[in-house]
Design goal:
246 residues; alpha/beta; D-Maltodextrin-Binding Protein, domain 2; 2 domains; six-stranded mixed beta sheet; five-stranded mixed beta sheet; 11 strands; 24% strand; disordered N terminus
Length: 246
Amino acid sequence: MKTQNYLIAILFAFLLGSCSQANIDDKTIVIGASSTPHALILEETREFIESHNYALDIIVMADYVTPNIALDSGDIDANYFQHLPYLMDFNANNGTDLVSVVKVHFEPLGIYGGKKTTIDNIQTSDTVIVPNDTSNKARALELLTIHGLTNCNIIEMEAQAIPSALQDAEYAVINGNYALSSGVVDKVIITESPTSDIAQVMGNIIAVKRGNEHKPAIELLVEAITQENIRDFIENTFGASVIPLF
């Protein structure tokens, strides 16, 4: 019950900050998004969307619950912050019926250099920090196995804390979004492949409520975010930490 009340409070606060409920049939596309890189990528679609006589309203949301609650209730038209496995799990646990309309980008795990800047001379005494959550740890160990680092001294740590500890280890496996927010993107040595199965599974999507997939506003949003200039923006702005999938 405490969890339910907390979610209700979050949604209520969000609604208080909105002027009115989104109407997918009007000429404004209201989309909830994480700040980085999602909202930044969406901002690049504004000119294209406005050239088609629609307005774009990007609402930055800091957590991973509010965007789907707001989408289900109709307070936003779409959201952009999650991958499909998270969406499917959210639907199963909350009785929602939200669907993906396009896969936009992949935030790969990467091996980042701390005390060492290459993986050409790996020693068993080298320390490698990896995320301690189940899914990211498994991905990290697979990446390390591919590149011959599994015999090193592996230390687990909360994913968001790893960048600040990078200087104390030879290497660390860091999520793309945390590498971006902590300013260590330039220390990347190698990342998960954009052609790997994990890239397709974990691609970040734009989601809508089922039944709205072919609304003109949503089709325009999908067209806008899959333009070549958006691909160029992602590649030029985020480098190896964010990989376009269209």
